[in-house]
Amino acid sequence: MGFNGISGIVNAPGELPWELVLLYFAVAIAIAFLFGKKTGGLRGFSTLDLVYIGIGAAFSVVWEFYIGAFLGKFIPSNPFINVGFLGRLLIVFIVAGLVRKVGTGILSLAIFDILGDLFHYGFGGEPIFLIYESLTYGLFVDLLIAATGGQPFGISSFKGISRARGKTTIAKASSGSEEEEEYSGNMYKPIAYGLGAIEGAIIGALWAFPDPLFYDGFFKPFLYGGYVNWGKIIFTIEAFLPGDIIMGIIAGVLAIIIARAVGQ
Amino acid sequence: MVFWSFLYEQSLTQNVLSWFLFFYGVVFPILLLLSVLGLKGFLEITRYESGKTFLYKLNPLTKIIFGVVVMIVASTTIWWIGAILTLAVMFLYFTLTNGVRKFVYITILNAITIIGGTWGIAPYTPTSILQMVFPNPSSYTTVWVWPSYFTIMGYEPTLTLQALIYGLQISFRITAVLDSALLLILSTTTSDIFRMFSKIKVPLAVTFSILVGLRTVPRIFELFDTSIKMQFARGLGYNKPKIVNAFYFLYAGILAIVPTMVYLLRGAKNLAISADTRGFRAYNSRTSLVHLSIGKMDYIMFVIIIGLIVLDILANIYGFGRSIPYVGF
Questions:
Q1: pLDDT tens digits for A124-150?
Q2: What are the transmembrane regions (chain B) (predicted)?
Q3: In Å, how far from its chain's centre is CA A108?
Q4: Which residue of B265, B278, B329 to mutate against A (max A Cβ within 10 Å)?
C-alpha cells in the first residue's frame, strides 16, 4: 500500500531507472531555485499576477474535469487529441502571456494540481503529482519566459509604447481598443503573431514528452504498479506531438490576443 | 451467447446499431448532463453554502485525511467496497444544507461518471488486460461485435460482458474519490481552507492563488451559463428542431470560452486592488481570530477513518484485495 497510495515500485520491467528520474527532478529543482533567487521567488509576483494564476488554474480545472472531459467524449478515444489536456495547455500559455514572470509556469501548474486534488482526485498520490507536473510542464513554460527575457510569445508591456506608423496589415477586424493601437506600434503584426506561434509550437512540442515518458515510463508503475510498454510510450509521444504543436501555435497567438484584450 | 446476437450477425443491423451505440454511448452522458444537471448544477456542487451540521464543524484537515483514506481503500480493495464507499459518502450529502438537492446532483454526477467511465474504458480494453481479472478468455460473454473497421478507432473487435464489468469496476474507484473530494469543497468556507493551508505552512502567495481558484470555479460555470443563454437569446438555433439543440448548446459552449476568460481576467484587477488595499502580504503571515481546532466530531471521524483502514487490511487478508490491475485512465 505504501505511503498515501504510492506503491513505490522502482524495479518494474522496462521502468525508467529511478536514478535518472531523480537526476531530472534534482536538476529541475535546482533550476527553479536559481530562477527563484534571481527574481525574488514568490515575492516577485504582484497580487494581480497571483489572481491571474488562480483564475487560470481554476479554468484549467473546470476545463479538464468538467467541460473538456465531456466534450472529449464526442471524439473517439485516441492518442492524438486529448481535449482536456490541450485545453490546459492553452490556458497555461495564456496565463504565461499575461503574467510574463519566470515561475509563472511552475506556480500555475502547482495551483492547478492542488485545485484538481480539491475538486476531483483527492490528495492521493501527493506530493508526487505536484512535483511532477509543476517541474515538467510548468518548468518548460518558465524556460521560455526566461529565454525570451520575460517576453513570451513576443508579448511585452503594452504601456508606454508610442504609436508608430500604424501599420494595419492584418485585415481581421479587432476590437480597435487603445491597447490594440498602442500594440501595433510595438512590432510588425505578422512578425508578432509568427513569433508567438513559433514559441508556442516549441513549448507545445515539449509538452508532448512528460506524460508518456515520465508518467507512463515511471510514475504509473511507481505509484500504482502499472506496466510499462515502451512501444506504446514512443507511439504516444509521436501521437501527442502534432496536436500539441498545433495547439501550441493557437495558444501562442491567442495569448497575444487575450493579453491585448485584457490590456495587460 | 446473448439473445440479440442475430443483430450483430447481420451486416446491416450491425453497422446501424454499432454507429448508434457509438453515438448513443458517447453522447448519452452529455445529454444527461446538459438536460438534468445543467451548468447551474455544477455551480451548486462546487460552491460552499453555510450550514450547521457535523460536516461543517469538522476540521478541514480531517476531511482531507478522510478523502485520502477513501481513495486508498477504494483503490486497494475489490470493486464493491469502492461501490459501497461511494454510496456511503453520497448519503453524507443529505446532511449538507439543501441536502436533498445536493444528493440529487451528486447522484446524477455519479451516474454520468459511471456511464461515461464504463463506456470510456470497456470497448478499448484488450483481452490481455481482462485476463488478469478473468483468467479464462473462452468463457467471456460476447455482448456485441463491432464492424471490423471500428478497430481503427481503437475499439476491440468485440465488446464482452467482462470488459463492461471491468469498466464499471474502475469507475467506482473514480466516484468514491470524487464524492469525498467534493465534500470538502461543499462544507468548508474559503477562510477555513486558507487557515488550513496556512497551518501546514503553504506560502501565503500560493494559498491566495488557490483560494482565488477555489472561488472562481463555481463562477466559471455561472458565467458560462450566462454566456450560453445570451447566445440563445440572440437567436442561436432559432426555429431548428429540438433534437439538434444539444449540439447548438455545445457550439455555444465553445464560443463562450474566450469571452468568459477575458471577462474573468479583466475582473482580476479589481480583486487584486481590493486585496492590496486590505494590506495583503504586508507581513509574511496573517493573524487569525479563529483557530482551527480538533473537536469531538473530528475524533469520531478519526475512529471512522481508522475503521476504514482496518477494513482495508482485513479485506486484503481475506482475499478481497484489488483484483484489477490499475491501468490508469
A1: 777 888 888 888 999 999 998 888 888
A2: 20-42, 54-72, 78-96, 103-122, 246-265, 299-320
A3: 8
A4: B265
Name the residue among A77, A12, A63, A60 with its Cα closest to residue A216. Answer: A12
The ipTM is 0.79
Question: Over 50: is that where the pLDDT of A179 sits?
Answer: no
C-beta of residue B97 within 8 angstroms of C-beta of residue B306: no
3-state secondary structure chain B: CCCCHHHHHCHHHHHHHHHHHHHHHHHHHHHHHHHHHHHHHHHHCCCCCCCCCHHHHCCHHHHHHHHHHHHHHHHHECHHHHHHHHHHHHHHHHHCCCHHHHHHHHHHHHHHHHHHHHHHHHHHCCHHHHHHHCCCHHHCCEEEECCHHHHHHCCCCEEEHHHHHHHHHHHHHHHHHHHHHHHHHHHCCHHHHHHHHHHCCCCHHHHHHHHHHHHHHHHHHHHHHHHHHHHHHCCCCCCCCHHHHHHHHHHHHHHHHHHHHHHHHHHHHHHHHHHHHCCCCCCCCCCCCCCCCCCHHHHHHHHHHHHHHHHHHHHHHCCCECCCCCCCC
Contacts of A150 (CB under 8 A, 6+ apart): A100, A101, A102
A227-250 per-position pLDDT tens digit? 777 877 888 888 889 989 999 999
> Among A88-102, A169-183, A188-202, B5-19, whose mean pLDDT is lowest?
A169-183
Three-state secondary structure call for residue A3: strand
Which distant-in-sequence residues (6+ apart) come within 8 Å of A53 by Cβ?
Answer: A45, A95, A99, A104, A107, A108, A111, B209, B212
Output DSSP code: residue A43: G
Could you tell me what percent of chain A has a pLDDT over 90? 19
Contact A48 B327 (CB under 8 A): no
Name A39's Cβ contacts closer than 8 Å, sequence gap at least 6. A101, A102, A103
CB atoms within 10 A of CB A239: 18
pTM of the predicted model as reported, rounded to 2 decimal places: 0.80
Are B145 and B21 spatial neighbours (Cβ–Cβ below 8 Å)? no
- Does any CB of chain A come closer than 8 Å to the CB of residue B132? no
- Joined together, the cell numbers standing for residue B285 give 503571515
Distance from CA of B133 to the nearest CA of A (A): 14
Question: Which residues are paired to A6 by β-bridges?
Answer: A3
Phi-psi domain of A13 (left: phi exceeds 0; alpha: psi -120 through 50; beta: other): beta
| Those residues with Cβ within 8 angstroms of residue B255's Cβ, 6 or more apart along the chain or in another chain | B227, B231
Residues of A in Cβ contact (< 8 Å) with B124: 77
- Which residues numbered 281-310 in B keep a CB inside 8 Å of some CB on A? 281
User: Where is average pLDDT lowest: A32-41, A202-211, B229-238?
Assistant: A32-41
Domains observed in chain A: 18-160+184-262 (1.10.1760.20)
Q: How far apart are CA B281 and CA B198, in angstroms?
A: 13
Q: Tell me, what's the pLDDT at B224?
A: 87
Domain spans of chain B, in order of start: 18-188+294-318, 195-278
